[in-house]
Amino acid sequence: MASLGVGLHLIRKRGAGRSAAVERRNLLTVCRFSVKTLLDRSCFETIDDSSPEFINFVSILEHILNHRLKGQTTWFGYESPRSFWDYIKAACTKVPHNCIRSIESMENVRSSRAKGRAWIRVVLMEKRLSEYISSALREFKTTRRFYEDGAIVLGEEAGLLADMLIGLNTIDFSFCLKGEGLDGSCPAVIDYTPYLKFTQNADSISSDEEEMRTVGSSGSESSTPDKAATAASIFTEQSNLVSKCKRFEQKYRMALEQKSYLEELVRLREAQLSEAVSHNKALQQSLADTHLSHTLEKEQLKYIILELQDQLKSFQSLEQLSAEMSLSQTSLEPSNTLSLEAKQASTRWPHQDKEETPSLRGLCGSLTSVASYKSLASLKSSECLASPATEVSSPGITPS
């Protein structure tokens, strides 16, 4: 009996694991279909709260983010239900310029579920849903603390979810954050009918033809072959229309993919252009600074050149003055010597034949002393570069 109980427990555990894997795969598949329908609908009209595709997408996203979410443990040990907003609020704090604080301060949004729905609408309008999801999944410890084992956000499919939501950045959403969609009391219900597709094979087509023929033949006994021909022509027209619709749908999807690719390329080029513009502004600023420093250095060099020219002129004037003084000194020295010799001759000439008296001896001595004094004064003036006026007007001597 014990072995039977253990076997039943293992079977139940495997079945639960298999059902959880199927649930995860179905939710991700339906989310991918919902994103595609939103992209298709955005080509024809603006997506808002009244769009059924958007309502279904929000319900699917809520189911994915609430999948195997742990309850909040109270003081008494009980677990109360929790919304994914608590996880987003804790895991997305590192997102630059996040909107968590603004959503927390909303007056008309009270419950945690309503705040989570408001957050989905805000980040869709900001075109940053994939960025928030990727940032939350990188916080593995926080995710582990909020979710149980087997949750979608803890599995390998979480990365696919973030990549899947990038396509929503090409849609321009318009929401009212005061509408009925933020009511936290109403549950999120997924509508699977838009994603169910009926494929018609050759057997079903042949059975439809037989039904149409039997209906045409049993209408009245007086039916003619023309009615059968018209029914066949109608069926062929319908098949042609179906094939044309399929071709048109294929072309439309291709054009839509090209449109999304071109929009992403344009966004990339705009980012590169803004970066180039900022770099150009920085280069222009550096060029202006360089030009200003160049002009300042040029003015300083001009001022230095003018100062050097003034100093050179003053040095030239001093040299010229010293040259003039030396020339005047050399021109005055022979005349002084000649005047002294003439004076000595004049003093000696009248008294050659007379006897020398004491008075004459004293006069000759004084004259010789005066002559020696004059020669000494001229020697000092030549050494000190004195003027001729000071040489002539020495004390005690009058010019002849």
From TrEMBL:
The keyword Aminoacyl-tRNA synthetase does not apply. Residues 48-180 form the RUN domain. Residues 207-226, 341-361 are annotated as: Disordered. Pfam families: RUN. Residues 215-225 have a biased composition (Polar residues). Signal peptide: none annotated. InterPro entries: Run_dom (IPR004012), Run_dom_sf (IPR037213), RUN_RUNDC3B (IPR047339), RUNDC3A_B (IPR047340). The keyword Phosphoprotein does not apply. Keywords: Coiled coil. PANTHER family: RUN DOMAIN-CONTAINING 3 PROTEIN RUNDC3 (PTHR46251), RUN DOMAIN-CONTAINING PROTEIN 3B (PTHR46251:SF1). Belongs to the RUNDC3 family. This is RUN domain-containing protein 3B. It comes from Lates calcarifer (Barramundi).
